[in-house]
Amino acid sequence: MKGDCIQILVIGAGPAGMMAAIKAAESGAEVAVLEKNHLCGRKLAITGKGRCNITNTKPWAEFATHVHPRSNFVRSAFYNFSNKATIEYLNSIGLETVVSQGDRVFPSSMKAFDVVDALVDRMNALGVKLISDADLLAVSAEGNQFNCTYNDLSSPRSIKTEKISSTALIIATGGLSYPSTGSNGRGYDIAASFGHSVTRCYPSLVALLPKNYDCSLYDVELKNVGIKLYVGRDLVQSDMGDLTFTEDGIEGSLGFRVSRKAVNALENGSSVELVIDLKPAVPLPELRERVKREVSSFKWDVPLINDARLKKVLRRFMPAEMIEPFFRMSKGLTVNTLPERLKEWRFPIAKHAGYRRAVVTAGGVSLDEVIPKTMQSRLNKGLFFAGEVLDLDGDTGGYNIQMAISTGALAGQSAAKYVSTL
């Protein structure tokens, strides 16, 4: 076993860890990054369906409404390194960006790997020591020094146990979402070993699987629909937007936005139901009249509306691929009940897709034990946190990556200032 000592060690090379390392190095500190995977930013590389929604252009007042559970904690980090600063910084290191879908910011290439490459190139240019294929075994503190032991997996045939020490330690290990990218919750264990509390964790921005889910709905996309989330008999959230039916259930931006409360309720043993409004812009009385007009337009000789005719009416109100599953799920559907069914398509939820497909982890290191103006632990000097490992999560739309970048930048700068005073 050999030993190295460095000023700042960052554990985790996701967006929070890379930005922490970059900002610490730019502040003049000697920095190393310990990463479990062979490559940095594996989860970042698959975000946004491989396009990477880096951030958005919303001002803080609006941005804050999409942060959970306590947006105020992020305020200092956001103002220290905002979404505007993020865009300008990425542009300055050679990554061109573009605003799409209203206010969402992507790399101009629409390739997430370009974001990863830009950050890695910046770390290399600053002399950050990147230690990849490093399986962390233990972290301890002795005096003013943190000691990390890890297995070097770069050569599988001859695994070596190595040790590295640092004056400051930044934990940016992410959460539990997308375990295929290496997320395993290790950061929570490290935090707990230093006396930190970890709030209950659960998947967020994740597909919700309906009971008796009709597989013919797979890949159907709905634009500009309404949704209501019921927990028990209580309406707890309503929203509008786009959703997608997938093999894992109801997702898309709208499905994801209601998933946080839905998952929390499911894990607490409550019943959950989603009610989709296919015509949110049309009041029910107006929709009733429209159905009557559409039926009349067929000019059928016999007024009887059998199943075949009813399906023809449905073609005027929904995509063709959705007619059969909608019809099967709407027991006792008639022309008279059609308007109500279009406004209230009910989906009792059986379960969620779990961490396997969750975009982010809700819960994490307690915010009460971290100083928001520095990201430093209130319990251990020299220990800092950044990114998803904290009890912070956001809605879909660039909020989570921006929070990782903002908290990472602040942690890196604060750690550099800390070591400079010793």
Give a concise summary.
The protein has helices spanning 15-26, 47-50, 60-63, 75-80, 83-92, 112-125, 186-193, 252-267, 284-297, 307-314, 320-329, 338-343, 399-420; strands at residues 3-11, 31-34, 55-56, 67-68, 97-100, 104-107, 129-131, 134-142, 145-152, 160-171, 202-204, 208-210, 221-231, 234-246, 249-251, 272-277, 345-352, 360-362, 370-371, 376-377, 383-385, 393-394. It is α+β, with helices and mostly antiparallel strands.
Overall average residue pLDDT: 95
Q: Estimate the global geometry from the Cα principal axes.
A: elongated
Kindly provide the name of the CATH class of the largest domain. Alpha Beta
Report the end-to-end length measured between terminal Cα atoms: 28 Å
Indicate the CATH topology of the largest domain.
Answer: FAD/NAD(P)-binding domain
Number of helices: 13
- How many β strands by DSSP? 22
Describe the main β-sheet briefly: 7 strands, mixed
Portion in helices? 25-40%
Strand content: 25-35%
Structural class: alpha+beta
Radius of gyration: 25 Å
CATH architecture of the largest domain: 3-Layer(bba) Sandwich
Query: How many structural domains?
Result: 2
* CATH homologous superfamily placement of the largest domain: FAD/NAD(P)-binding domain
Q: Could you list the spans in which at least 5 consecutive residues all have pLDDT below 50?
A: none
